[in-house]
């Protein structure tokens, strides 16, 4: 299944939901992707199915990794938890089978068995705070530092780049819809989307 050259297509090209062989599986508005820590699997945020899907890169089998398919923010066992149009998924840099998920107004963490809240909640908006006291609005790209201590994310409709201290779950991040350079909170963004490390990011 692995390719050095060429293109492999995952999904039959019809919107919907079904697991199975890569050529038969169905997705609905797939968005963010990440590789597992061991490089053996590809994780996909399947927005309109409200799930995180897993593709085995050895045999091409597609399965559901997180989500019941119900559009809500219920936490719990990974296949029983609810997601709300997840857009981004990112692997923990130190822990195998553990992932961060951004879905509309919250950031969640899956430890391989269960899903828990890191930040945000039911309502969109802007507020710094700890855990559920923080407010987010369409957080997009996720990027964890190599030491696993801090998670950065683009809070797109709040026009901010923000971060979460993963020890305390404290969220911090001016929120003006414009483009302006500056230092830290004096800089402004207009609908920021993706983030990426520069190779020295720890």
In percent terms, what proportion of residues is strand? 25-35%
Number of domains as seen in the coordinates: 1
The CATH topology is given as Neuraminidase
Helical content class = under 10%
CATH superfamily: TolB, C-terminal domain
Q: CATH first level: which class?
A: Mainly Beta
Protein architecture, described:
The chain has one domain (30-186): TolB, C-terminal domain (Neuraminidase). The radius of gyration is 17 Å and the shape is globular. The protein has no helices and 14 strands. The protein has 202 residues and is mainly β. A 5-stranded antiparallel β-sheet has the order 5-9-8-7-6, with no helix packed on it. Strands 10-14-13-12-11 form a 5-stranded antiparallel β-sheet, with no helix packed on it. Helix content is 0%, strand content 34%.
């Amino acid at each position: 299944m692995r390719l050095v050259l060429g293109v492999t297509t995952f999904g039959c090209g019809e919107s919907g939901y079904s697991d199975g062989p890569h050529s038969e599986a169905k997705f609905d508005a797939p968005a963010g992707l990440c590789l597992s820590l061991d490089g053996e699997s590809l994780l996909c945020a399947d927005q309109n199915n409200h799930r995180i899907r897993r593709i085995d890169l050895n045999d091409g089998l597609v399965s559901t990794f997180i989500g019941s398919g119900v559009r809500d923010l219920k936490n719990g066992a990974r296949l029983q938890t609810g997601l709300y149009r997840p857009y981004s998924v990112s692997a923990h840099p130190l822990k195998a089978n553990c992932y961060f998920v951004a879905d509309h107004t919250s950031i969640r963490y899956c430890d391989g068995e269960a899903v828990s809240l890191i930040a945000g909640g039911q309502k969109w908006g802007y507020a710094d705070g700890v855990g559920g006291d923080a407010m987010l609005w369409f957080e997009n790209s996720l990027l964890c530092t190599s030491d696993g201590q801090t998670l950065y994310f683009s809070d797109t409709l709040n026009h901010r780049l923000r971060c979460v201290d993963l020890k305390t779950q404290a969220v911090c991040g001016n929120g003006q819809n414009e483009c302006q350079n500056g230092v830290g909170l004096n800089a402004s963004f207009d609908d920021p989307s993706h983030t990426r490390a520069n190779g020295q990011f720890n």
